[in-house]
Design brief:
The protein has a 4-stranded antiparallel sheet, with no helix packed on it. The chain contains 1 helix and 24 strands. 48% of the residues are buried. The N terminus is likely disordered. The longest helix has 4 residues. Helices cover 1% and strands 39% of the residues. The chain is mostly beta strands. The chain has one domain: TolB, C-terminal domain (Neuraminidase, 6 Propeller), CATH 2.120.10.
Length: 314
């Protein structure tokens, strides 16, 4: 996997822009007529979406899309600010920020109305990325190279105490909590390329879930804990897959020849999948059914919209 995995989706590089000709429309054997250019734009009914975007120009900031489809700026800080994740109660968002030091990204928490941004990691050298809020609300898991290579850690939201979970000597990244808070899915290149693993929330009992010739990344648990979404390049470019929580039944959901889909997240209590894709020259947000059908578009604004996180409101 190398250390590039943590870098693919985040803001330190504003060179992550689309290039080349317009790709062919999304075609899935499950939904031959599916189109990523649904019009009018769909609304995230019953939920809110936090995401990072370049739509304001300059640098990445975090935005929130309301259930009526309107969008508001959440962060207005020196940046970049990216990779938002909701607190379990929806009152706060954790995100990655270059506000204090562009060479040492850290984690911030902000109220959902945009007030009281505060740093939750003590000042320390090293980059900290990919925050994931625990279902119990007390911890945020993240990846950091503070001790050399990228490993997984947690930080107490209340006290700032940092606990190291992995000590693998290679790259461990992209943590995702199970809905009961007892396990963490993550990505490791300990066997040569990026594969998805699962471990107990304290870092014990590491189990490999995928084994493919490509990079398997960006795991996301379903609300019932039975499924895990992920992205794989096993078929050439980044596509969305789903598997059972034990690694069985790995199934491809998206079928795009030239441009991939990224950061899949469960939405609408697990009845839909939220993701970002570069179908028409920059990255936008989309929803689809869990079998890859019925793709609808949520955003159509110049400037990359990425790394979306869903919050159910009811």
């Amino acid at each position: 996997m190398r250390n590039h995995l943590w870098f693919i989706l985040v803001v330190a590089s504003v060179t992550l822009v689309a290039c080349g000709a317009r790709p062919a429309p999304l075609v899935s054997p499950l939904s031959p007529l599916a189109s990523p250019t649904a019009s009018p734009l769909a609304q995230p009914a019953g939920g809110e979406i936090a995401f990072h975007s370049l739509r304001g120009g300059g640098t990445f900031q975090v935005y929130v899309m309301e259930s009526d489809g309107s969008t508001r700026l959440l962060t207005n800080l020196a940046g970049p600010n990216s990779e938002p994740a909701w607190s379990p109660d929806g009152s706060q968002v954790v995100f990655t920020s270059g506000k204090d030091d562009i060479n040492n990204f850290t984690l911030y928490v902000i109220n959902v109305d945009g007030t009281e941004p505060r740093r939750i990691l003590p000042a320390e050298r090293g980059d900290n990325w990919y925050p994931a809020w625990s279902p119990r609300g007390d911890l945020v898991a993240f990846q950091s190279n503070r001790d050399g290579n990228f490993e997984l850690y947690t930080v107490s939201v209340g006290t700032g105490q940092v606990t190291r979970l992995t000590d693998n000597g290679t790259t461990d990244s992209m943590p995702a909590w199970s809905p009961d808070g007892n396990k963490i899915a993550f990505v490791s290149d300990q066997d040569g390329d990026g594969e998805i693993y699962c471990m107990n929330a304290d870092g014990t009992e590491r189990v490999r879930l995928t084994s493919s010739p490509g990079e398997d990344t960006q795991p996301a648990w379903s609300p019932d804990g039975k499924k895990i979404l992920f992205v794989s390049t096993r078929d050439g470019n980044g596509e969305i897959y789903v598997m059972n929580a034990d690694g069985s039944g790995q199934t491809r959901l998206t079928f795009t020849d030239k441009n991939g889909e990224w950061t899949p997240r469960w939405a609408m209590h697990g009845t839909r999948v939220l993701f970002s894709a570069d179908y028409e020259g920059d990255w936008d947000l989309f929803l689809m059914d869990p079998d890859g059908s019925n793709v609808v578009r949520l955003t159509d604004t110049p400037g990359d919209d990425r790394h979306a996180a869903w919050l159910d409101l009811n």
